[in-house]
Write a structure and sequence with these properties.
The complex is a heterodimer of chains A (314) and B (521). Chain A has helices at residues 2-29, 34-39, 45-55, 61-73, 87-122, 127-141, 144-158, 174-208, 211-218, 223-251, 255-260, 266-276, 279-307. Chain A is an all-alpha fold and 314 residues long. In chain A, helix 5 (87-122) packs antiparallel against helix 10 (223-251), helix 6 (127-141) packs across helix 8 and helix 7 (144-158) packs across helix 8 (174-208). Chain A is globular. Chain A starts with a helix and ends in a 7-residue tail after the last helix. Chain B has 521 residues and is an alpha+beta fold. Helices cover 32% and strands 22% of the residues of chain B. In chain B, helix 14 packs antiparallel against helix 15. The chains are: A mainly alpha (314), B alpha+beta (521). Chains A and B meet through helix 2, helix 3, helix 5, helix 7 and helix 12 of A and helix 7 and helix 13 of B.
Chain lengths: 314, 521
């Protein structure tokens, strides 16, 4: 197991090298220019050229790429053109909101998704099954921004129960943080719960048809004990995989949710960085996201061993 | 029935008392304290007023810094950090007396050394500064509170250039002005304004707090200038990129003021008793900038055909979401909010909708249905809307339009390359002087290199007699519609919303300012 983990960690290096290079080339090769955006609509071409020189953007692309590699190897992600601060600082500032949103939404998604899938599987073809799966279908189909805006209109504007948008740190004002996080976590969690519910249902259905379940029932165990103790744990591996993928996606930034609810997280950062062509920030966010993605996948793989002792990594 | 003298006296006394009390109450109403939360579109690229023309930077920096001059209610120059000025008999020497005792946010007194260093930097970077300093022969301090500008030739744009609020001649401490090269944005933000920067957390807020040592002018508030009072303890500018969220937050009271709102929200905001929508004028006149350096649009007949083809009112109505409050049909190149330069000329070939003329001009141009590359962006919905409607109208009369929809960053890069487009969309904000019209210069994208236009612009910059300048501007306007360097559509207005608890806000200025504003909560 240890050898396996070390080997997986080592594969991180080429993965990140490829990701970083591709992102660097993509963002530099698409048209657009940070300087034109920064200097405003009335700037003249001469002004733009002078500022491009000052930022080193007039240098050949390969030279900029090698400089970028050299910096990354020294642990320096560069300086944001727009934010007047190191990219690492900008990323750290955004990490807390994104992590809080990720875990809150994931909690909502799991709390809705897993029980829905299990209940639907336990009573296949019933009204429960149809109702819950219709809910899951809606969760997949309803666009996140539509749901978010309607939540804001209903719960903030009409009813006044919760703030429309914003963010407060859980470390400075936990109550305010909670009130700000309810709507984004529920709207994002509802969207994400759909896939978890569908996967949970199909895995549970499969598990419930296995011989050991029949044996358990033959022993006279209750439906609850059969479902939760015997079938559920065996159905859990694919469900954990989906939860892991969902988490990785959310860490990369729940872009729409962060923008609609004005949460200063990584998703909002990368969107504004792409629109402004703030190259160092785009590269930094992608590097961090790719690392998180690989590490979460690794953690999920390691978790399989805990869930299912039959799994062995040689 | 008549009142006895004693009763009259008592009544008069009571009325007087009521008036005095009323006045006192009004004065009390302007109370200090509180936080004002302002929702705006996004992050500024810099808080260096010299460095960028971005309007968000203009709005923010005008709370922190001040220039020698500012603009009054009619957008004419009035002194701000300058006490007064004199002009030599030959018109080549401007001597500025500075106000004494004005302090920077770091406690240092502002003197001529700071003014010289700041405007020298501004003159190398700012659009307006460069134009002005191209006419300056010498720029020096005469004593601690007096500076002198010697010109190479007579100029009409000295005061107005020092007064424009965008990309403006903000006075920084000398140490900062000299520390940052003009092309490098300053990252130290110290000014003499009524608010000082307390904290900048990108994508969360910019906090400005009252500068207690601010020395206001003695006059009443007047436009962007005059007496400024920071009643608020703090102004918190919060970037809220999603416009629907900005609307919701001002409705719920999470924001006290929201700028740049979607016109679709107007009816909903009007119904809310706790706030007031504001139509902000002038905003932009919509424009298709034509590439006159190379390609199809170098052909003047083709440009004239475009101008003759478009039916502007339906385009404007559509862009304004059907609300007539948000657009104006006007052919003047400078809006009526700047009365000194607003023209009312009849017989201009604007909004002609003349299909026969279009056909004739297209034939004379030798146009063979080559696609015209028209660049626009969806990041600004109004740009995309008017480009799309223009395409339909133009294609109805024989044009072939290749509408290229790109993001704003791409558009602002491509528009500097004459090989990449024939036309692009943008908006033209208020020019406070005819010489500030960038679309009439050879250096701005689109490249207006017409000799007659440039000659008149140069004359406008030299001529100092106001009546003669007005005549020149009218001549230039007629010439504009004949040569068609760009296509002028109608005026579009913006939408803002303000909570009823926010008082003292000046609705008449194009850009928002929060000095002289207080909150009642």
């Amino acid at each position: 197991m240890t050898v396996y983990l070390v080997r997986r960690l080592l594969t991180l290096i080429p993965v990140l090298a490829v990701v970083v290079t591709v992102v660097f080339l993509l963002i530099h090769l698409i048209p657009g220019d940070p300087v034109g955006v920064m200097l405003g609509p009335d700037a003249t071409p001469a002004q733009i050229e002078a500022t491009r020189r000052a930022l080193g953007l007039d240098r050949p692309l390969y030279e900029q790429l090698f400089k970028f590699y050299a910096r990354v190897l020294q642990g320096d992600l560069g300086q944001s053109y727009f934010l007047d601060r190191p990219v690492a600082t900008a990323l750290l500032d955004r990490a807390e909101p994104t992590l809080v949103l990720t875990f809150s939404a994931l909690l909502v998604a799991v709390v809705i998704g897993v029980p829905s899938g299990i209940i639907a599987a336990a009573y296949p073809g019933s009204l429960w099954d149809r109702g819950l799966m219709l809910g899951a279908l809606l969760g997949v189909c309803v666009p996140g921004f539509w749901l978010s805006l309607n939540f804001i209109y209903l719960f903030a504007v009409r009813l006044g129960w919760l703030p429309a948008a914003g963010y407060a740190s859980i470390f400075t004002d936990p109550l305010a943080a909670l009130s700000y996080m309810v709507l984004p976590a529920v709207s994002l969690g509802f969207n994400q719960s759909a896939l978890i519910a569908r996967i949970s249902r199909s895995c549970m259905l499969e598990a419930l048809q296995q011989d050991y379940v029949r044996t358990a029932r033959a022993k006279g165990l209750s439906q609850g004990a059969v479902t939760w103790v015997h079938a559920f744990r065996n159905a859990l591996v694919p469900v954990v995989t989906v939860i892991g993928i969902t988490m990785a996606i959310l860490i990369g930034g729940a872009v729409v949710t962060e923008i609609v609810f004005n949460i200063p997280g990584l998703g909002r950062l990368i969107i504004s960085a792409v629109l402004r062509r703030d190259y160092p920030v785009v590269q930094g966010v992608i590097l961090v996201t790719a690392t998180a993605y690989v590490l979460i996948n690794l953690a999920v793989d390691a978790l399989y061993v805990v869930i299912d002792p039959r799994i062995r990594y040689e | 029935m008549s009142l006895k003298p004693s009763r009259r006296a008592v009544l008069l006394a009571l009325v007087s008392l009521a008036l005095v009390a009323g006045a006192a109450l009004t004065a009390d109403a302007q109370k200090k304290g509180g936080i004002l939360r302002v929702g705006n579109l996004g992050e500024p690229p810099a808080l260096d007023a010299h460095w960028t023309t971005a309007s968000i930077t203009e709005m923010l920096t005008n709370h922190i810094y001040e220039g020698l001059y500012s603009l009054d209610n009619n957008n004419r120059p009035i002194p701000m950090l300058a006490e007064s000025h004199t002009v030599s008999k030959d018109g080549l020497g401007y001597t500025f007396k500075l106000r004494q005792g004005v302090k920077f946010h770091n406690g240092k007194e502002m003197t001529s050394d700071d003014v010289i260093a700041s405007l020298a930097r501004w003159g190398k970077q700012s659009v307006y500064g460069k134009t002005l300093f191209s006419q300056v022969a010498e720029w020096k301090a005469l004593d601690k509170y007096t500076v002198e500008m010697k010109l190479k030739e007579k100029s009409s744009i000295v005061l107005i250039s020092l007064a424009v609020p965008n990309n403006f001649g903000a006075i920084y401490p000398k140490e900062i002005a000299e520390k940052f090269a003009p092309e490098v944005k300053s990252t130290e933000w110290i000014g003499t304004g009524p608010f000082k920067l307390a904290e900048w957390k990108p994508d969360q807020y910019i906090r400005m707090v009252r500068f207690d040592d601010y020395k206001p002018r003695n006059e009443k508030p007047n436009g962007y200038g005059g007496g400024k009072t920071a009643y608020l303890d703090e102004v918190r500018f919060q970037p809220v990129p999603e416009v629907a969220t900005r609307v919701a937050q001002v409705e719920t009271g999470e924001l006290d003021f929201a700028d740049d709102l979607n016109l679709d929200a107007y009816d909903r905001l009007k119904k809310n008793p706790n706030l007031r929508p504001i139509v902000s004028k002038p905003y932009y006149w919509l424009v298709a900038v034509l590439n006159k350096k190379e390609g199809l649009m170098t052909n003047a007949k083709l440009r004239q055909a475009w101008q003759a083809a478009i039916d502007i009112e339906p385009i404007m109505k559509n862009v304004a979401g059907g609300h007539t409050e948000f657009y104006r049909m006007d052919s003047s190149l400078i809006p009526p909010e700047i009365p000194a330069w607003h023209t009312k000329l009849s017989g201009l070939p604007w909004n002609e909708r003349n299909k026969d003329k279009v056909k004739r001009l297209l034939a004379e141009a030798g146009y063979k249905k080559e696609p015209i590359r028209f660049m626009t962006t969806q990041e600004y919905k109004w740009m995309y809307d008017f480009a799309l409607l223009s395409k339909q109208q133009l294609e109805d009369v024989g044009f072939v339009i290749d509408l290229q929809v790109v993001d704003w960053a791409t558009l602002v890069k491509r528009r500097n390359n004459s090989k990449e487009y024939d036309a692009f969309t943008t908006g033209i904000g208020a020019s406070y002087d005819p010489t500030h019209a960038n679309f009439l210069t050879a250096s701005w994208p689109g490249w207006t290199t017409d000799e007659d236009i440039l000659k008149l612009q140069a004359e406008l910059a030299r001529e100092t007699d106001q009546k003669k300048r007005q005549a020149l501007w009218e001549q230039q306007t007629r010439q504009f519609y004949e040569k068609v360097p760009v296509i002028r559509y109608g005026d579009l207005f913006g939408l803002r919303a303000i909570r009823n608890t926010t008082k003292g806000f000046n609705e008449k200025t194009e850009r928002v300012r929060f000095y002289n504003v207080w909150v009642e909560k």
